[in-house]
Amino acid sequence: MTTAHSSIDRAEVAKFQAMAAEWWDPAGKFKPLHMLNPLRLEYIVTQIAAEFARDRASLRPLDGLRLLDIGCGGGLVSEPMARLGAQVTGADAAAENIEIARVHAEQSGLEIDYRATTAESLLGADEGGFDVVLALEIVEHVADPAEFIATCARLLRPGGLLIASTVNRTPQSFAAAIVGAEWIMRWLPRGTHDWRRFIRPDELAGMFDAAGAPVVDRAGMVFNPLGFRWSLSSRDLAVNYLMTGVRR
Predict the structure, then answer these.
(1) DSSP-derived secondary structure letter, 184
(2) Whether the Cβ atoms of residue 123 and residue 182 lie closer than 8 Å to each other
(3) Residue of 153 and 28 predicted with greater confidence
C-alpha cells in the first residue's frame, strides 16, 4: 500500500463547502464554471480521443475508459464524461459537494462513483490504474501543488492522461479572476482566489515532468467580454489555461 501526506488545505475546502448548494445553478456562484464548461469539455474530449484513438463522432467515445475527476465539486464535468461512456469516479474533499453531486447524478439517471475523499487517500488504498485523471480548477487551492500533481500522476496507468486546468499568475489574471470575477461582476465571493497561489504554465509543466507525466499539450482559455464567450488559444495562456501530460 502506498501512503502520502495530504495536500488538502482545509480553509480552501471550507470556501467551496459554503457554496455547495449552488453547484447546478448556472446563474449562481459557480456561473464562471458553467460558462467555461463547454470549452473545458471540448478540450478534454479532444485530448482523450487523440490519445486513445477514439471516434469523436460516436455517441460514447469514452466507452471502456476509467476516469477520475479529482476535486469534482458538484459533478459539472463528471456527468458529461459519464454520458460519453467513461467509468467515472468523482472525488472531492468537501462532503457537501459530493452529496450534491450524488443527488444530481441520480436525478439524471447516471451511475457515477462519487466519494468524499482525496487523491492521496485513493492512492493509499491502491485504487490507481486510471486511464484519465482530471484536476480542474483545483491545483491553485491545494497546500502543495507539486505533491498533488505527483499523486495524480501516480493514480494513472502508464500511458494514461493527466489533464489539469488552473489560473496563470500574471497581472492579467489578477484583473480578470479577482478584480473582474470577484469584485466587479461578483460571480464569486470575495476571497475565493488568492493571486499568490496562481501557477504559471512553466511551473505547472515542471510539476508534470517531475511527476513522470511530461506535457504534450497546453492551451489558454480566453474570455471575450464583447461576445461574452470563451475560446481556446494556443498562444494566450495569460489567465486561464489547460495542460495535458502522458504518464511514462
Answers:
(1) I
(2) no
(3) 153
